[in-house]
Specification:
Number of domains: 3
Number of strands: 18
Helix content: 40-55%
Strand order of the largest sheet: 9-10-13-14-7-18-17
Number of helices: 11
């Protein structure tokens, strides 16, 4: 899922359908029709060359506040009506609107949050990114098991990733093949050092990169017509990430297109022959005939001097001190203190991928999130802990445990009939159960 340049997924307002029908149309149909034409031109320009499958297909733009949508085709159930060369209507209140691909009315759609970027290149990159997600299940790509990527929230994980991104930047900007190969080799080296320190990191990072990384690579390749524009857009992806507070979910938006463009140069067609176990570091290392040194740690320390490694480390040490303070606060809130646990049945979730913090095996703290499930709607604005296996979400226990509308520290919960919370196993804890 990709929003506007790593943007927040917009929260929905659970308005009744009658309220939607009284709302003004938030999406100008003329503009939407023009954007659909842009997307169609991108698909036709690609001719299915990149992935062997056309990116064209059902597409809609949606306003998350009103659920008003504009689509490029009608739906099977007659919800959408023809208007001014497009199709308009309202989605039910229980369906999310975000930048994603999803099944609705018997069809897999590319869905995008309105408004789209006004800058043409960013908009085309975003549209091509999301068009990829619609066809992604048909590509038989490797699907390694995911993980929290907690290593990217540690001191050494952050340092090695930023050194890697600096090396990729140098490689993309290089004026000679010798300089490009040298910098690309440094990127592979810095990643190898991270994987030496965190043996489980490769599988976890590959899972994200074969999802969002390939989508952003597609966005950059299809959304930008010239090699120079593709490099410029990728450098923009890197610059927007380089000093982020967390990299655990956002890193592939930079590594995906950066490695992808380098692989395009040295081994064209690489993306059409991906196998389980492949990673960008392996693919690029093989393409460059790059051999890791015998002492990866020593070599990485030496090469870091070329990328202002000492200053980077000093900056990250201070950030790590602050991170540890936040970790302690979150552990006190979501692990040690009284909590409310909400197990999932048929969960849909929206969150800001830039504001996450893995919590020592307990799960990941999301600064903000909105969850819709059979039991109702949870809105959290001051943190919530998603369990590692995504089986439940945890918030600070409420002071009042009865009623259908509950609230606590930075969260509200609207329960559907037939659900209630009862005391948990620890004193002060609560858990949500079905009352039927």
């Amino acid at each position: 899922m990709r929003s506007v340049r790593l943007s927040v997924l917009s929260l929905l307002f659970a308005l009744p359908l009658a309220a939607f029908s009284q709302s003004p149309q938030a999406i100008p149909t003329d503009t939407a029709r023009a954007y659909f034409a842009e997307a169609q031109a991108l698909c036709q320009g690609d001719h299915g060359e990149l992935w062997g499958i056309s990116l064209c297909g059902p597409m809609m733009f949606g306003d998350p506040k009103t659920h008003f949508i504009v689509a490029n085709q009608a739906d099977a159930n007659g919800v959408l009506k023809a208007e001014n060369g497009v199709f308009t209507g309202f989605l039910p209140a229980n369906l999310y609107i975000s930048n994603t691909a999803y099944e609705w009315s018997g069809v897999r759609w590319t869905q995008m949050v309105w408004p789209l970027p006004t800058e043409e290149r960013h908009r085309k990159t975003l549209m091509a990114h999301e068009l990829f997600h619609r066809i992604q299940p048909r590509l038989n790509l490797p699907t390694p098991p995911g993980g929290e990527n907690a290593q990217l929230d540690t001191l050494e994980g952050r340092i090695t990733l930023q050194l890697e991104l600096r090396a990729l930047t140098r490689a993309l900007r290089a004026q000679s093949d010798e300089e490009r190969r040298s910098a690309a080799g440094d990127a592979v080296l810095f990643r190898a050092e991270r994987y030496r320190l965190f043996p489980d990191a490769a599988t976890q990072e590959h899972a994200m990169e074969w999802n969002e990384g390939l989508a952003e690579f597609t966005g950059v390749r299809v959304g930008n017509p010239t090699p120079e524009q593709r490099i410029d857009e990728t450098l923009g992806d890197i610059s927007r990430l380089i000093d982020a507070s967390t990299f655990v979910r956002s890193f592939p938006y930079a590594t995906g297109p950066a490695y992808g463009l380098l692989l395009d140069r040295y081994t064209p067609g690489w993306h059409r022959a991906l196998k389980a176990g492949d990673g960008y570091e392996t693919l690029l290392g093989n393409a460059l005939h790059y051999q890791l040194p015998a002492n990866v740690h020593q070599a990485a320390e030496q090469q870091a001097t070329l990328y202002d490694g000492a200053a980077l480390r000093a900056s990250e040490v201070e950030k790590e001190r602050k991170r540890q303070q936040i970790l302690a606060q979150n552990r006190a809130k979501f692990v040690d203190g009284p909590i409310l646990t909400l197990p999932f049945r048929k969960m849909q979730v929206q969150f800001d991928p830039r504001k996450l913090q893995p919590l020592d095996g307990a799960g990941t703290v999301y600064a903000t999130m909105r969850i819709n499930d059979e039991w109702g709607v949870l809105e959290a604005s001051n943190g919530a802990l998603m369990k590692t296996d995504w089986s439940a979400v945890i918030v600070v226990a409420p002071s009042v445990s009865e009623g259908s509308s509950l609230k606590g520290d930075g969260w509200t919960l609207q329960l559907t009939p037939g659900w209630k919370i009862i005391p948990g196993t620890r004193r002060g804890d609560f858990i949500l159960i079905s009352g039927s």
